[in-house]
Specification:
With about 180 residues, the chain is an alpha+beta fold. It has two domains: about 40 residues, no CATH class; about 130 residues, Sandwich (Immunoglobulin-like). It contains three helices and nine strands. The strands form two sheets. Strands 1, 2, 4, 5, 6 and 8 form a six-stranded antiparallel sheet that branches. The chain has a three-stranded antiparallel sheet with strand order 7-3-9, with no helix packed on it. A hairpin with a 2-residue loop joins strand 5 and strand 6. It starts with a helix and ends with a strand.
Length: about 180
């Protein structure tokens, strides 16, 4: 008798009545020979960004132009799954609101553009939606389509004179 009671308890726990018919999807005990049960499934994917190819040293020397100013273009990759990123930047040597290269106290101001959007130093983030790649592209080590353009004017270069000018530019890129 103990064996029969244990078998009945197991059958009830597994959702089957003692006669072998399945209970309904809600477990209320309606008996049927087959059932179709709906299950709602949700997957939430957060906005994400990945940046590759922006580490290291950028040497503007090769692009020096005393007449038109020096423009250096740095290709890199911004991978994004939300259609846009917010970009902000700060200069290690610049006074508030400026980017400055420095050589022993002599400064040379420069500008920063990312994907054709001007990025103002120490300002609120700038929305960038052009030239974004997929997350997989940037995670795969591909160069990507993003560009950072650095520019110093010919007038500022002339005023600064000869020297080796450096700065640490910190760029923050966040998913929107």
């Amino acid at each position: 008798m103990k064996k029969i009671l244990m078998a009945a308890a197991v059958a009830t726990t597994l959702g089957f009545a003692s006669n072998g018919f399945a209970q309904d999807c809600t477990g209320t005990g309606s008996l049927t020979t087959s059932q179709a049960c709906d299950t709602d499934i949700t997957l939430t994917i957060a906005s994400q960004v990945v940046v590759s190819g922006l580490l290291g040293t950028v040497d503007m020397s090769a692009d020096f132009d005393a007449v038109n100013g020096t423009t250096t273009t740095v290709p890199f990759c911004i991978g994004n799954n939300s259609g846009g990123v917010d970009v902000s930047a700060t200069s290690g040597n610049g006074a508030s609101g400026t980017y400055s290269l420095d050589d022993a106290g002599t400064t040379l101001d420069y500008t920063v553009n990312i994907n054709s959007s001007a990025i103002t130093a120490d300002a609120a983030a700038t929305s960038v939606t052009a030239q974004l790649d997929t997350l997989a592209t940037c995670l795969g080590g591909t160069a990507g389509t993003a560009t950072m353009v650095l520019f110093t004017s010919a007038a500022d270069q002339s005023t600064a004179g000869a020297g080796t000018f450096t700065d640490t530019l910190t760029v923050t890129i966040a998913a929107q």
